[in-house]
Specification:
Number of domains of chain B: 1
Helix content of chain A: over 70%
Helix content of chain B: over 70%
Number of domains of chain A: 1
Strand order of the largest sheet of chain A: 1-2
Strand content of chain A: under 5%
Strand order of the largest sheet of chain B: 1-2
Order of helices and strands of chain A: HHHHHHHHHHEEHH
Number of strands of chain A: 2
Number of helices of chain B: 15
Oligomer: heterodimer
Distance between the termini of chain A: 31 Å
Radius of gyration of chain B: 24 Å
């Protein structure tokens, strides 16, 4: 579910971040926002749904991480709210000043969100100072070092924030390329051409940084060498993005980017398993899949309704994406 | 009370109160919009479609504000109430996750179709999307009420040695008798808000002699729905909810009524100010025996006063609880009076010329909001000092590692953010009301769009 959220909301976050760069005129920016307009809040619902599932399936993990990440989560909340206001209120009034204001809010909050999400993932990989009750509290920053008393932001999590910014902006630019034509399409293609080498570079830097602070993350891969398929997939996806992008196959370039994101997240999850929140204070304090999961009756019930709910939800999505497929033009949106 | 606990309570109270200003209108308007769409489909009269489009605009702005202010609610369970989440997440996480998975997906997907798809969809499909928006918003309401009902009246759980709750019966959680009454009471309250707002805008147009045809339709639909909902609000739903409280939360009932001393044939307090220092109601105006009868259907039944509970088990803010409850009931009674008189005038064919009544209907719009919020305050203040009634105290539920300073920082942040949202909301709704439901305004808008297009071409 987290993967679904990152891939789906990832493109509209990224598209938001580049809206001001590739959209030079009011109408062009309008095109970009219309490209994500009908689908963005459905995508955001995945975040809420994932949060809800986390809540009942792993109450301790939810309680611990939400308290520990209090400050960054509140900032994420404010950014999410600003972003929603930006996209929803922009089209209410066709005054250029009004529109510009909400576009700017939308774009800045989208970009900052990608960084915070990346930093959050960085915290999970690096580990947090859990106490014996399974709780912790982190300041926003302390001394920018990884140990012994880390803040939410340190040099490592800043790197992962940058990875997320680059990867999701690239993802968003590929989506905009896919959904538009004309100047906007040309400019966002240019963004991809510039971002691809950066993406390659930050992916490598983050890999090296991760292995230098947590070398034991390789253990799972050594135990189950099949896991090495995941990094290979990431490399293949990176090459795919470049090749399909060069040959103008917009759809496959975007799909490669989806695979890249899924691979990065999957690789991280594979490495930390069975931990769900690693303790920097010692492995005995780590929260694992097993010590946080709720009772089996609740899980059985939930799997039944969850499966039904997700099938229905996917039904809406297929329907919505079908209704709104094709390229967006400046004048008429989707002809609605 | 510890400073951090107070701030965490204010944090939730402020954000949830502000949030609930929006869903009560969307849940209240949704069935009214379905009625308008149904009439349009049946009669083929375009006026109903125009009315539905107008209310869809109001609905859309409210929906956005409701979603935006709703996201923090789910987060706060973890951020500000992490001990509570750790203990109770296995149970109430179910209903909260179901809200996201079933109701919220449904509502947001079909709202997009309803708002932007009228030209593309057939009239029947457009009616269907309006109907699904209604279903989604009311389902959402149910899952949230079921969550609160479990905290008020916990059922279907087992408790582990470490104190955490585990779900034992899914259906008893979903069909909690408390949830059924609370839901009925809450939804008719939402319809009252929707109906009063619809009537008030109709009355405003009639008084300003604008959009007369639509105004009459708004008033007619508004007061008929409002009359039914106002009566249902007291009986059976208010009565049923009250008996739930009398049987399961006797200390809460005593607090709501300001009844300090246990007595047989207890009176119902209409007015008066509870005085915690002396343990009595100052300046009382009461109806003798009435409380006993309403609670237990017996004129002489014994009603427990606050003196029969240990002081640590009674609600910690009796005056606020008492007034929240009395404001709710007082306003509810006035709603019935206003609506019954209006329906009578409508029946006699005099309502649309009775300008004094139109003034009352126009100015009545804010009061259902106050009544709905006061009702929720009654429920949640009445639950104190418990977070999960009788099982987990509020003082044991908050995030102890989040300091008062951090809590204050984010509370002030929300206050600032919500001030901006409130200003934008009022501004946008004012524009919609000012523009009105008539079609000729569309042509006024065109030149702006054309100019914009021309500028785009030039660039």
């Amino acid at each position: 579910m987290v993967v679904a959220y990152v891939i789906l909301d990832g493109f509209d976050l990224g598209a938001g971040a580049i809206a001001l760069i590739v959209g030079r005129t009011d109408a062009e920016r309008g095109t970009i926002i219309r490209a994500i307009g009908p689908v963005w809040d459905g995508n955001e619902v995945w975040l809420l749904a994932a949060g809800g599932v986390l809540y009942f399936a792993f109450p301790l993990l939810y309680a611990s991480s939400f308290q520990g990440f209090y400050l960054p989560l509140m900032i994420v909340l404010w950014l999410l709210m600003l972003r929603a206001l930006g996209i929803e209120f922009r089209h209410q009034i066709s005054n250029p000043i009004w529109r510009k204001f909400f576009e700017t809010i939308f774009s800045i909050s989208s970009a900052l969100l990608t960084i915070f999400f990346g930093a959050a993932l960085g915290n999970v990989i690096r580990g947090v100072p859990l106490n014996s009750d399974g709780y912790f509290f982190e300041a926003l920053w302390t001394n920018w070092r990884v140990v012994p008393n880390p803040g939410i932001l340190d040099w490592y999590t800043v790197i992962s924030g940058v990875v997320a910014l680059v990867a999701l902006t690239n993802h968003g630019a590929l989506y905009v390329t896919l959904k538009t034509d004309g100047d906007v399409n040309k400019r966002s293609r240019k963004v991809v051409s510039i971002l691809w080498p950066a993406l390659l570079a930050v992916t490598l830097v983050s890999l090296v940084a991760t292995l230098s602070i947590r070398p034991e993350l390789l253990d799972n891969y050594k135990k189950a060498p099949i896991g090495f398929a995941i990094p290979l997939l990431v490399v293949a996806a990176l090459i795919g993005i470049l090749r399909f992008h060069k040959s103008g196959n917009e759809k496959f370039a975007f799909l490669s980017s989806c695979v890249y994101l899924a691979g990065m997240l999957g690789g991280a999850a594979f490495a930390v398993y069975p931990n769900v929140l690693t303790a920097s204070t010692g492995p005995q304090y780590s929260l694992t899949i097993n010590n946080t999961v709720t009772g089996s009756y609740a899980m059985h019930v939930a799997i039944v309704w969850w499966a039904i709910g997700i099938v229905i939800a996917i039904g809406y999505f297929v329907f919505l994406f079908k209704m709104f497929k094709g390229k967006v033009t400046e004048a008429g949106g989707y002809g609605l | 009370m510890e400073q951090a606990l107070l701030i965490h309570r204010l944090h939730f109270a402020f954000t949830v109160t502000f949030h609930y200003l929006f869903p009560q209108l969307t849940m209240g308007l949704a069935p009214l919009i379905v009625i308008l769409k149904t009439m349009a489909l049946k009669t083929g009269n375009e006026q109903y479609n125009r009315a539905a489009r107008f209310w869809a605009k109001v609905f859309g702005i409210n929906f956005v504000c409701g979603v935006v202010t709703g996201i923090p609610m789910e987060f706060q369970f973890g951020t500000n109430w992490s001990h509570f989440s750790r203990f109770a997440g296995g149970v109430i996480g179910q209903t909260l996750a179901m809200e996201g998975t079933f109701a919220f997906f449904l509502e947001s997907a079909f709202l997009g179709l309803f708002l932007y798809g009228e030209k593309k969809l057939s009239p029947k499909m457009h009616w269907f999307s309006a109907f699904m928006v209604f279903v989604g918003s009311w389902l959402s309401g149910y899952f949230i009420v079921a969550t609160d009902a479990w905290m008020q009246h916990p059922v279907g759980y087992t408790r582990l040695p470490d104190g955490s709750f585990q779900l034992a019966s899914f259906w008893s959680l979903l069909l909690n008798p408390w949830a059924l009454w609370q839901y009925a009471h809450n939804m008719s309250g939402a319809v009252i808000t929707g109906a009063f707002v619809m009537t008030a805008i109709g009355a405003f147009y009639l008084l300003s002699r604008k959009h007369v045809e639509n105004a009459r339709l708004f008033i007619k639909l508004g007061i008929i729905a409002g009359c039914i909902a106002s009566i249902m609000q007291i009986f059976p739903t208010g009565d049923g909810q009250g008996r739930m409280i009398a049987h399961n939360q006797p200390a809460t009932l005593a607090g709501m009524e300001g009844l300090y001393k246990t007595q047989q044939g207890a009176p119902l307090a209409i007015m008066g100010q509870p005085n915690p220092a002396t343990g009595q109601l100052d300046n009382p105006l009461t109806v003798p025996y009435m409380l006993s009868f309403l609670s237990y259907q017996h004129w002489n039944a014994e009603v427990k006063g606050l003196d029969s509970f240990p002081p640590q088990d009674i609600p910690d803010n009796i005056p606020l609880l008492y007034f929240a409850y009395h404001i709710m009931v007082g306003l509810g009674t006035m709603f019935i009076a206003v609506m019954v008189v209006s329906v009578f005038l409508l029946w006699r064919g005099k309502l649309f010329d009775a300008r004094w009544m139109l003034w009352i209907l126009m100015l009545a719009a804010p009061f259902p909001y106050i009544a709905n919020i006061a009702g929720w305050m009654t429920a949640e203040l009445g639950r104190q000092p418990w977070l999960v009634y009788g099982l987990l105290r509020t003082v044991d539920g908050y995030s102890t590692l989040v300091s008062a300073g951090n809590g204050m920082f984010t509370l002030l942040g929300f206050m600032g953010m919500y001030t901006i949202i409130a200003i934008l909301f009022l501004f946008l709704v004012y524009r919609v009301i000012n523009e009105g439901p008539e079609p000729e305004t569309l042509s006024v808008r065109m030149p702006i769009d054309l100019k914009e297009a021309a500028v785009a071409v030039k660039n």
